[in-house]
């Protein structure tokens, strides 16, 4: 039996807390010094021999997105920083904006990590995760 990750409970707690504030205009994380991290919207589809995850990440470049698969956990992170400067004779104005998205998904079944692929087009990230064949999955242990 697999052990449950205690950090999943913490993440679930913050997701519920955030959803409670959504009806009241949202929880302004930046006002509390928590940065501009937002939860990424995803779809997880089970298509025969693979899972397909579709995630919205508008405005990011593909080099700003990191996708990782570890065991049965898929993690997607996107981060970007923008800055602009406006100079005139009497003042200098410099504005910076940082935005990040993060999402971790527990997959229902093991996947072939080496065969995972991802595409990014028009702000939509599509990740294809081939399921691990139950007959060949895992590692065979030789008995001495």
Automatic annotation (TrEMBL):
User: Which Pfam families does this entry report, sorted A to Z?
Assistant: HSP20 (PF00011)
- Looking at the record, which segments are called Disordered? 78-103
Cross-referenced SUPFAM superfamilies, in alphabetical order?
HSP20-like chaperones
Which residue intervals define the domain SHSP in the entry? 33-144
Q: Where is the composition biased (Basic and acidic residues)?
A: 90-102
Which CDD domains did the record assign?
ACD_sHsps-like
Which PROSITE patterns does the record associate with it?
CS, SHSP
Q: Where is the CS domain?
A: 37-142
Family stated for the protein in its record: Belongs to the small heat shock protein (HSP20) family.
Q: What is this protein called?
A: Hsp20/alpha crystallin family protein
Tell me what organism the protein belongs to. Answer: Halalkalicoccus tibetensis
């Amino acid at each position: 039996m697999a052990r449950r990750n205690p950090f999943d409970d913490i993440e679930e707690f913050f997701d519920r807390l955030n959803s409670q504030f959504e009806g009241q205009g949202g929880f302004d994380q930046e006002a509390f010094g928590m940065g501009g991290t937002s939860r990424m919207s995803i779809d997880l589809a089970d298509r025969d021999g693979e899972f397909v995850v579709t995630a919205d990440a508008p405005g990011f470049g593909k080099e700003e997105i990191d996708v990782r698969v570890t065991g049965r956990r898929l993690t997607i992170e996107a981060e970007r920083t923008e800055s602009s400067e406006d100079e005139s004779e009497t003042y200098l104005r410099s504005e910076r904006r940082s935005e990040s998205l993060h999402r971790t998904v527990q997959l229902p079944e093991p996947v072939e990590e080496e065969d995972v692929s991802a595409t990014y087009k028009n702000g939509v990230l599509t990740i294809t995760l081939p399921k691990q064949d139950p007959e060949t999955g895992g590692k065979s242990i030789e008995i001495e």
